[in-house]
Amino acid sequence: MAPSEEKQKKLKKLVNLVNRSEIASIKSIVSGVVRIINDPKASIWDLKEMVEIDPPLTAKVLKVANSVYYSPPKKIGEIKQALIWIGFDTLKEMALSQKVSEIFNKNGSVEGYSISSLWKHCVAVALITKMIYRKEFRERGANAYVAGLLHDIGIIVESQFLQNDFSLVLSKAKNAKTNLSEAEQEVFGLNHADIGMAIAENWNLPQEIAGAIGYHENPLKAEQGSSKLASTLYIAEYCSQDSSIGYSEAPFQNNEIFEQCLAELNMDPHALDLIVEDAKRELNEMEDQGLF
Ligand SMILES: [Fe+2]
Ligand SMILES: [Fe+2]
Questions:
Q1: Ligand 1 centroid to 262 CA: how many Å?
Q2: Distance CA 10, CA 33 (A)
């Protein structure tokens, strides 16, 4: 069998396992909220309905809306009131982060890997990616936040379904001082970005998201429709590692790719300092809201 055929076969098998597991429980809310984010005609009522069909998510959103951080004048008991108090945009992101956090809830038992710090890393990448779109590109970046939240979903899959080999990958990455993707490639013949992209495609998420997840470790090879988002994810990844936020999956940063991404996006690296500070502040606020 040709290597690419074998890789596709492995990916298909993993996606099937994912779709039969708890990970797939986030699929309908995530794709529903992403659809709302990308539809200029969508209203707050679409979001309200979407959140309300998921009682555990509703409870979590109400808990955050009632937290000290949002300090409502009186107790918020319905999503409708939460929408009015915290706003449409914030609620879309909150619904996504609260839902995606469910698959990071388990304690990582693999040595050298902590699922909760991986989650913190994913939120940091989501925030920094979104902020770069808003502040630097002056764009809404509809898919930036969700792509950041999901970019390393492949690592979760490896830690759940390929546990023994994943331990080998981690020790290889540690001892041979190679980055995670290279170690994965050696052991699995594919990496966590390939897995993430296969899941995003199978779940019919927009191609921009799927492509950016698939090339977040290799952004200069991304296809046109997702290259900007893939490069921004790389920059966000680099920044979060540089400032040691959460799990650092590739401690051997590639300065050359980072510089090339900055050049491609026409970005001044100094602008990133402020963005990282803002992201750290927002992460602290999310910590106060109980997200970590
Ligand atoms: Fe990654
Ligand atoms: Fe990452």
A1: 18
A2: 29
Question: How far apart are the CA of 163 and the centre of ligand 1, in A?
Answer: 17
Residue 38 CA to residue 57 CA, distance in Å, equals 21
Which ligand is closest in space to the CA of residue 245?
2
Query: How many Å lie between the centroid of ligand 2 and the Cα of residue 146?
Result: 13
pLDDT score, position 116: 85
Residue carrying the six token digits 């996006």: 265
What is the mean pLDDT for each group of 10 consecutive residues in the chain (292 residues)?
A: 87 97 96 96 95 95 91 95 94 95 76 83 96 96 97 94 91 83 94 98 98 96 97 95 76 84 95 95 86 78
3-state SS of 78-102 is CHHHHHHHHCHHHHHHHHHHHHHHH
Alpha carbon of 105 to ligand 2 centroid (Å): 17
Nearest to 120 by CA among 91, 152, 94, 142: 152
| Rounded-to-integer distance, Cα 175 and Cα 6, Å | 28
Q: Is the pTM of this model over 0.90?
A: yes
What is the C-alpha to C-alpha distance for residues 23 and 211, in angstroms, rounded to an integer? Answer: 20
**CATH number for domain 3-23+106-288, candidates 3.30.390.30, 1.10.3210.10, 2.60.40.180, 3.40.220.10:** 1.10.3210.10
Structural domain spans, the chain: 3-23+106-288
Burial 3-30 (b: 16+ CB within 10 A, else e): eeeebeebbeebbeebeeeebbebbebb
pLDDT score at 251: 59
Q: Would you state the pLDDT for residue 248?
A: 65
CA-nearest of 73, 102, 108 to 246 is 108
